[in-house]
Amino acid sequence: MASVVAVAHAVPAAAVPVVSNDGTQDVGDRRADISSLSLDQDGVAVVVGVRMVEFADPRTDFFWRNPRASSLVEVKIDRDRDNKPDYIVDFVRAQVGKTTTTTLAVQVFSTTAIAMRCTGSYSLDARGGWIRLGVPKSCIPATAPYRVQVMYSFNRSAERPTLSPVVDFAPDFGRWFPGP
Ligand SMILES: [Ca+2]
Ligand SMILES: [Ca+2]
Question: Which of 43, 139, 144, 162 is the most interior residue, by most CB within 10 Å?
């Protein structure tokens, strides 16, 4: 688990994000089932949102708090429209410094380097069922409008080690969402 120094918790206010619907009941657990995907790439940040059929709150949910295998949201970003991801954004529980304490964090990586590039921000809308992740554009320079793929992995191994994570992709696996 990578350590994280500081995490901002505020996602910039979205302008008018473009929303795409994902099929529901396409995975075997409502808590892992993405129903919508949103992308806002105006302003100074890229904000990616997923709306869940049933919102398992990452702050409190047992399967998000599991220290051995947390659930996570992973966003792949294509910055030049060549169908290859250039940045990976992970929303996951991460260790705080060298302590055993963990906190939710948005960690941004380049696909060509091991070190974390920067941290992003998140906001949780439990009522609406949305998880929104923000990444400063200065951290992920682009040569074309960004496209994204999102994966939500609901890890149930804390319940039974043999249980595989339930995973949903938006758009469907291998496709890119161009947003606005
Ligand atoms: Ca779905
Ligand atoms: Ca690319």
Answer: 139
What is the distance between the alpha carbons of residues 173 and 176, in angstroms, rounded to a whole number? 9
Q: What is the pTM of this model?
A: 0.88
CA of 126 to the centre of ligand 1 (A): 18
Give me the pLDDT at residue 166, please. Answer: 95
The Å distance, Cα 11 to ligand 2 centre, comes to 24
Tell me the ligand closest to 84's alpha carbon: 2
Gap from CA of 111 to ligand 2 centroid (Å): 9
Kindly give the distance from the C-alpha atom of residue 132 to the centroid of ligand 2, in angstroms, as a whole number: 22
Give the per-residue pLDDT at 10. Answer: 58
* Three-state SS sequence of the chain: CCEECCCECCCCCCCCCEEEECCCCCCCCHHHCEEEEEEECCCCEEEEEEEECCCCCCCCCHHHHCCCCCCEEEEEEECCCCCCCCEEEEEEEEEECCCCCEEEEEEEEECCCCCEEEECEEEEECCCCEEEEEEEHHHCCCCCCCEEEEEEEECCCCCCCCCCCEEEEECCCCCCECCC
Residue 79 Cα to ligand 2 midpoint, Å, equals 5
For residue 68, report the distance from its CA to the centre of ligand 2, in Å: 32
